Amino acid sequence: MIAHHSLGVVALALLISSGCDSAFILDSNGSIQVAISTRGQDLDPDGYSLTVDGRQAYVLPAAGSLVLQLDRGDHTVLVGGLSDNCTVDGPNPRSVVVGGDGAVSVSFTVVCARATTGGFKVVVSTSGASADLDGYELFVAGAQESVNIPPNASEIFLDLTPGVHLITLKGVAEGCALVGGNPRRATLIAGKTVTVRLDVSCGGGNGA
To answer: Which has more pLDDT, 201 or 71?
Structure first.
């Protein structure tokens, strides 16, 4: 829950500065530091929004700092208001725990593709009693190179030609399988970053 007096603090604490990074620092009473950075091309021109616990939204400039005060306990922080060609790398929202002392750090990275091309955010999740713990090799047709990805993680591929692409997971262990088939067909739209979810189920079936 956001303290009742926090709105006045937020209004006074929004500072604009130069550059592509924004930092959000909760004072020592809150013991949390949240940071955001942006990379890529055709960056989001109007900045972002920051939502805390799904109820309170704050304006998040492309560069600047914001001071918040939160009650102790569990909170969620969500970055929104992104352009279609931009996406958050990794989980969004993020969970944080505000304690009585010490500092908790949470960071977001926003990645933007060129508006004339597009991107994929590939989210891999693995479930089952015999989950593949060493991860996979992830291929996206049209990308310059493959990447190694943990069993539960995400990866962003930028500047791809619009159209249909094949997305492939290699190194899937025996007894595990990519739900829906491997490779997966996904359509890319110019100026957008399309999220593709790859769910690997272990405990039955044959690996790819």
So the answer is: 201
More confident residue, 131 or 157: 157
Number of C-beta neighbours around residue 86 at 10 A: 21
Q: Which residues, at least 6 apart from 29, have a Cβ–Cβ distance to it below 8 Å?
A: 69
DSSP structure class, residue 190: T
Among 111, 20, 21, 2, smallest CA distance to 67 is for: 2
56-74 tens-digit pLDDT: 677 776 655 566 777 778 8
- Report the domain count for the chain: 2
Neighbours of 65 (CB within 10 A): 16
CATH of the domain at 72: 2.60.40
Rounded CA gap, 189 and 165, in Å? 11
Q: Using omega within 30 degrees of 0 as the cis cutoff, is the peptide bond preceding 93 cis?
A: yes
Q: In the chain, pLDDT over 70 holds for what percent of residues? A: 75
Residue range(s) defining the domain that contains residue 93? 6-112
Query: What pairing do the DSSP bridges indicate for beta strands 104-112 and 184-188?
Result: unpaired
- Is the pLDDT at 28 greater than 70? The verdict is no
Neighbouring C-alpha atoms within 13 Å toward the C-beta of 85: 20
* Chosen domain end from 57, 86, 112: 112
